[in-house]
Design brief:
The chain has about 130 residues and is α/β, with parallel strands linked by helices. It is built from six helices and six strands; from the N terminus they run ββαβαβααβαβα. Helix 1 (about 20-35) links the parallel strand 2 and strand 3 (about 40-45). Helix 1 (about 20-35) crosses helix 6 (about 115-130).
Length: about 130
């Protein structure tokens, strides 16, 4: 892996692509509490996220700080889906798209702020149901 992407753990694979270190760590800690054997790939942007998931390992869930337009342009949604994963968006652009009701903003779940570990855990449980 290149850039800031790194892998931690050894079970199901999750992606946390968030610029803010504290938010990234909070999400990773919640995933680790939910799935102690998890492999958590981290990245700071869509480009690094694409690099991180190119390993071909099956992906359970990806938390990506980006709006739906950026995700689609980067084709990150396709890369995540090709690895069997589900996508959750977060951040300003994702929230803005959700709030204005754009069709693109309703394609993927949006983790709205402020969020709690309970909300993240609910998304993790839902991702297991398929």
């Amino acid at each position: 892996m290149s850039g800031n992407a790194r892998s931690i753990g050894g079970g199901n694979v999750y992606l946390v692509a968030v610029r803010d270190f504290v938010v990234s760590q909070d999400l990773a800690d919640t995933v680790r509490d939910f799935d102690p054997g998890a492999t958590i790939l981290t990245a700071r942007n869509c480009r690094e996220a694409l690099t991180a998931i190119r390993s071909g390992d099956p992906l359970a869930l990806a938390f990506v700080e980006a709006g739906p337009d950026r995700v689609a342009r980067a084709r990150l949604d396709i890369a995540i889906r090709d690895r069997g994963g589900r996508l959750v968006l977060l951040g300003d652009d994702a929230e803005d798209a959700w709030e204005i009701g754009s069709r693109a903003g309703r394609v993927w779940p949006v983790l709205m702020r402020p969020f709690s570990s309970q909300v993240v855990t609910t998304l993790l449980i839902a991702s297991r149901r398929g």
